[in-house]
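Service request form, structural biology core

Requester: graduate student, group of Dr. S.
Request type: structure prediction, single chain
Budget code: on file
Notes: please return the result as structure tokens.

Sequence provided:
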Amino acid sequence: MKVVILAGGLGTRLSEATQLLPKPLVEVGDRPIIWHIMKMYAAAGFDEFVVCCGYKSHMLKSYFVNYFVENYDVTVHLGENRVDFHGDASERWTVTLVNTGLTTMTGGRIKRIAPYVGNETFCLTYGDGVSDVNIRALVDFHRSHGRLATVTAVPSPGRFGILDIDERSGTVARFHEKPDNEMGWINGGFFVVEPSVVDYIDGDDMTWEREPLERLARDGALAAYRHCGFWRPMDTLRDQRELEALWNAGRAPWKCW
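Core staff response, request fulfilled:
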């Protein structure tokens, strides 16, 4: 099962860092946040990734193309045009980096990478959030209910869109984005979806969190996997500093490897 990571946004709320870097390359503990996310999935046995690039896509591509140069000792044989890398590769990932457009919305990015996932169920998440969610249990839950998509639902901190969840079936009855003065469960990312969800996306200007998820909910095709543990998006510099403090203190809940 492939893991699709949405990594093309401008990251405007973290502009202190994203003027120079795409948001997924902003570091927590000397490693890009996207590396932490990929380590989470790899620890669960998922090591094939499709990264939806956009803003500063060349930097994301360079990071992975030069991964061994940056992370391993090397011997350079200039006369032989050869480089030797020393040490065992700790990551055995396959990473496909797709330029999905600078201004493409999240739904459009998913539709653009459809050829890279084929006719297979795939995981989908954002390139800026970490959690201690049990990814294996999430995938098993998705396979058990037979709906087109599963969203990880987390308790609302009061600034995100709300999911109305049927208590008996676990189906999402309604998806509505960022309401005022309303608390409940929210979209925490960490989706598992069937390839046919791209039929709910019309084109580049469609936001995944609006029409597609709203339509899936209306059709009874969206289920919620409730997670009450740690979950944190890196939306602001304050978020980045809090994640960094947890990592440096050896108390990062998302570190499962």
